[in-house]
Amino acid sequence: MLRRYFLKRLLVAIPSLVIASVIVFSLVRLIPGDVVVLMMEENQYADDLEAMRAKLGLNRPIYVQYFDWVGRALVGDLGESLYTRRPVAQELLTRVPVSLELGTTAIFFAILLGVPIGIVSAVRQDTARDYVARGGAILGLSIPGFWLGTLAVVLPAIYFKWSPSIQFTKLTDDPWGHVAQFILPGLLLGIGSAASIMRLTRTQLLEVLRQDYVRTAWSKGMGERMVVLKHSLKNSLIPVVTVLGIQIAQVLSGTVIFESIFGLPGMGRFLFNAITERDYPVIQGINLVVVTTVVGVNLVVDFVYAYLDPRIRF
Amino acid sequence: MTDHAVTVEPTAWPEAARRSGTIRRALTNLIRFARRKPFGAVGAVIILALLVMAVFAEWIAPYSYDQQIPGARLRPPGREFLLGTDNVSRDIWSRIVYGARVSVTVSFATVFLGNVLAAAVGITSGYFRGRYDIAVQRVVDAWQSFPYLVIILSLLAVMGPGMLNVILSLSILVAAAASRVIRSATLSVVENQYIEAARALGAGHPRIMLRHILPNVMATIVVITTIGLGGIILTESALSFLGYGVPPPHPSWGSMLSGSGRTYMYLAPWMAVWPGVAISLVVFAFNMLGDALRDVLDPRLRGARGGAAPH
User: Which of A147, A271, A287 to mutate to test the interface with B (most CBs of B within 10 A)?
Assistant: First the structure.
């Protein structure tokens, strides 16, 4: 049964990925002609229009272009940056880990904050603590991350004469400094996700706490800690797993902003620079990597979900 | 003549009475909503203030958004300049008031365009089902696999920055997410007997979808629209912050936090504070109103989404 479910999910994920790759591919083909001229003249990517179009691969039949691009991508060739002339895949090799570290830190903080606050909020429903937590969660969803990042850089510099370093520290140079530099941006990036996770944990736990088997646990004379943490929490956390799939996409969006503010040389900042430089092969490559990551993570999330909750396999 | 007046009177009077009755009922409903959902009501008031600011910016703002006031560079907030001035001597309060116009224009236009598209896609997909539905859902899946900022920035890299392009690219994204919710609402509406009855009476597909399904998924659309508005304002401000939103000198709250002003924020922290407060407050208001409307209009949606997109 489990295997059939996996296959079914895989059959849904693959067409999504193919369509996504067509979207990524079409993006560059939407460039207006005058932009190609601009790329040639402003950024000096080529000598004449024909050479520029050849460089972008626009001079061949469209289906040939697509299959050529996908074929190369499958063997790890994402083309070459117009700006630095370095292979995109090679550049990503050093940048993806940085974004991964930032994203993992963010998700870590999101769970660390979201789940316990959600539990307290549900168990103490309609008390002052619950209202504060819920209000805080809506606030967390409302505050723009780039503003938090800006304040985190500006305010301590004014009032405490301290500011987060925007010089990237490599793991090999200073392991502690390397990890430490992700803490502040990771925490701030995770706030939005923490709010989502808190809200979902709360509603799910409230639902489970109303179930018969929980009432049985209470009537057996079990303590609150036992009822909530041992009997209810596990079942209420299952749907929270699925939201992690959505949060991955959110967090990846956030890396574009936080890597720029905190000077982290990750994929998000690479994308932002590529957009400024009209470096379309890079944009295309990053989009493909990002979308594959999201689809992949969601697939894993679905599998984990099916494993945790056998009901949904049917 | 008199005959005529006599025949007009009785028809005109109930009409007026009916109308005033509707207004009274609407008012009663509003008051009941405010009592039941005080936070939602607070949100509604903030949104109303935002709309007033956007519409009457010329009258509310003491200065124009690009007016450089001689000798008033980097003034702290105070009696003269409510929220202070920036590095090119512009009044920050005035820029925030005009910025409301940008936020309102972008978010309402996006949500309108996006939801019309979403309703068209979602209702047809849920109504016809079959292969068409499967194909549409795969495309929606694909769109939703992209982190929103990544795909929008890439779109804008191709189309170029500007308000219209921001609205167009954002509305595609909004449409993808909203069509999902509208589709699932349609799926349950289609099961109702009145749809079968309409079909038995010979109503065609367009008529069933427009007259029977659309009104019944309207509550869902209202809720996702309200929550969506907050998310759009956040995304627009993020795009403007990154320099791909509404181009200067038009004041967007996001762009007020970026650009050359950033180096002056260490001298004038109020430049860094107020635009962010404005964004947070407005998005907070939309989220609270959206939550309250959801509970009242469509409890099924509870927990369906974690709220507006952060960042």
Answer: A147
CB neighbour burial string for B238-276, b if at least 16 within 10 angstroms, e if fewer: bbbbbbbbbeeebbbbbbbbbeebbebbeebbbbbbbbb
CB hemisphere CA count around A287 (13 angstroms): 35
Tens digit of pLDDT for each residue in A185-207? 999 999 999 999 999 999 889 88
Neighboring chain B residues of A150 at a CB cutoff of 8 Å: 257, 262, 265, 272, 276
pLDDT of residue A1: 67
Residue B233 is predicted with a pLDDT of: 92
The whole-angstrom distance between A222's CA and the closest CA on chain B is 29
Output the CA torsion sign for B253, B258, B264, B269: positive
| Cβ-based neighbour number of residue A58 at 10 Å | 14
Residue with tokens 């940056």: A81
Beta-carbon separation of A256 and B242 below 8 A: yes
Please count the residue pairs, one from chain A and one from chain B, whose beta carbons lie less than 8 angstroms apart.
192
The domain spans of chain B are: 28-298
Measured between beta carbons, the chain A residues lying within 8 angstroms of B159 are 30, 32
The model's pLDDT over A160-178, given as tens digits with 9 standing for 90+, comes to 877 777 778 888 888 888 8
Furthest C-alpha separation in chain A? 82
Question: What value does the CA radius of gyration of chain B take, rounded to a whole number of Å?
Answer: 24
Q: Look up the pTM and report it.
A: 0.85
User: Could you say which residues from 242 to 301 on chain B have a Cβ atom under 8 Å away from some Cβ of chain A?
Assistant: 242, 244, 254, 257-258, 262, 265-266, 269, 272-273, 275-276, 279-281, 283-284, 287-288, 291
What's the rounded mean pLDDT across residues A41-58?
74
Q: Quick one: closest CA in B to A204, which residue? A: B303
According to CATH, the topology of domain B28-298 is MetI-like fold (1.10.3720)
Residue B86 pLDDT: 79
Residue B91, SS3 per DSSP = strand
Q: At what angle do helices A280-308 and A233-261 cross, to 10 degrees?
A: 170
Side chain identity at B244, as an amino acid letter? Y
Q: Which residues make beta-bridge pairs with A80?
A: A87
